[in-house]
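During the no-cost extension, the postdoctoral fellow (Dr. R.K.) reprocessed legacy sequence entries with the updated structure-token encoder. One reprocessed record is reproduced below for audit purposes.
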Amino acid sequence: MDRILSTAFALMVGSAVVTSGCSIFGDDQGRPSSDADVEFKLSVLTHLVEDGPIVKLQWDLEPASDKVTYTVWRAVDPSELFFAISFVGATSTTDLSVEWEKRYRYRVDANHIELGLVASTPPITVATGNGNRLQIFFDVAPATITNSTEARFFFSGNKEASYICNLDDIAWILCQSPEVITGLTEGGHTFRLQGVYNNQETDNVQWSWQIDLTPPDSVILSGPGNTIYDTGATFEFFATEKARLECRVDGGAWKACTSPLEVDGLAAGEHTFAVRAIDLAGNRQPEPAVWTWQSQLPAWSIKPTSAAIRGLDWIPDTGIVVTGADGKVRVFDSAGAPIRTTHIGGSSGGGAIADIDGDGRTELVVGTDGPNQIVAVDLGNGSIDWVQPVTHRVDAAPAVARINGSWLVIGQSLADPGPVAMPVSAFSLAGTNGSLMWAVEIGAGGPGGAAIGAGAAVTPVVVGGRDNILRSLRLVDGVQTWQLDLGTDLDAGPVIAAGPSAADTAIVAGRNGLVAAVAMDTGTAQWSRIVDSHGYRFGPALGDVAGLAGTDVVIASEAGQLAAIDVTSGTVAWQRELSGPTAGSPILVDLTDDDRPDILVPVGDKLYAVSGTDGVVQWSFATTGTISVPPVAGAVDGGTEMQILVATDQGWIYLLPTGWDWPQSVTAAPWVRSRGGFHRQGRSGSE
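Re-encoded structure tokens follow.
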């Protein structure tokens, strides 16, 4: 069992007292092990001697003939100290041998000296025999790795002896302590010392060390994006060789650091993180690695309710529209101040927005449960235009479409929720008064919502279900035109992409990780593939994120894996792992002002901004609570700058500034959000 030998003492240096403590961990014989841990800290240091050891102490162990020698001396750099500990154990009362010696370097910083092991040196061999033999040893020697081209050796013996020395096997010369060597070159060196007593007795010792004049380098692997909505940031970095690292933020003091490093408490504005390496020789990186970024804070945040927010929209000239699980529709101005509140009965999901009754004012069409109904709310004055009861609860946001000059509301109502398939009624309502146009039972549907394609009287409505079936219904009468079994629950709502010919393509995703493209005119799969086995609960977005003048499917799995897929071939352009479960469908906006769409995707309690080109995270914004609906982008304050609205299941709403222009001219499909997916806003049949 190891035992601990400890001592505490005060060093007298001129008129200064340096108090220190030392603990040496040794084996059960009192001999420090080869990998002995040494704790040593100087708490006060006010003076360093010009030359020679500051102090050399020796104390006895058990048995009495065992000794530990403890030496502290000054290095060439006045900000450094070195010390060595030697253990001398007795094999008899007269024979002595040095068991080991370790040398350590300390660097002075703000009146503290930090320990750093320079190297474990070979044992110093001394003559053995009777106690009258000559024994010589080094009191002071260079660090085994140093950046000094000067070396100082202090040495002594147990007898008055003369000395000769040799540097790098060039020539033996007479020398005396201290021996100072200057003008040394980079590389390895060896200093040999021989003592002579009474013209016949000799003893030899040597010291080898390395001069390193090449400064190290450091690399910052990762950090925040160009703009973040956070007061903190995390960095990963490394040194290109064995070295210690120092970091600073915004030109502050350099401090020792390790990777990864989190910084926090930053104000809004531009920030700079720098890291530099200092190698074992003391060489300091001349130009640190630097990372710059912009930290922004929300323009405002409000908490109008404790209930989860299930619908979020922004309408020019109307305001911010929020539907909540508390059965209320709230409208706020651009500063987050409340304008009006409408009670719609039961808990509501997301809604569709259009002037469905032709009165020049925008309506929100939203479903509720308890009672199960569809409600049209006039957002101009907060009144309820009409209410239509439906068979079951309405989980997904309704879709709206205009055909032959009239608006229709398309939705599906589901039986009690659960992991098993649920009966579904698909229906169509007249936009003017909510009267029922048609309703059909379609088996076991899912909560993803409907998508509306192109066409005339045969405009298709596509819905997916938990019975693995994707169905196409005619918009005018609800008659099913085809169905396709995809072998997986279809919780995520489908989206529709314009096809290369007159026919569109439905993009659908399943709970087993399947993503498929289905021809809208025939119901045949154009391609399908498992992209992420964790599966999909929210539908995709469509746009030319790859910049190849095509359309890409952007979708996030339940595990937070974001992927971009070519809509024509099904080829995966890139995938990116994000931390946490996806909280909603992504949306596409230009975040870098390059006229190409980037991606906003909610994952857990963070909103991620991701480059559409390669999936690299640009920034993230942490919220209070889980983000419960897709974000909204637009000139919310009525100006020309794009802002982003984010809402959570704890009732919080945030407005994030971006600095980019709005409106944007990016290649992205005009999708309207729903809980499970997207549908086209106002996709016309025939007029």
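The chain has a mean pLDDT of 74. The longest strand covers residues 96-109. The remaining legacy entries will be reprocessed before the final report is submitted.
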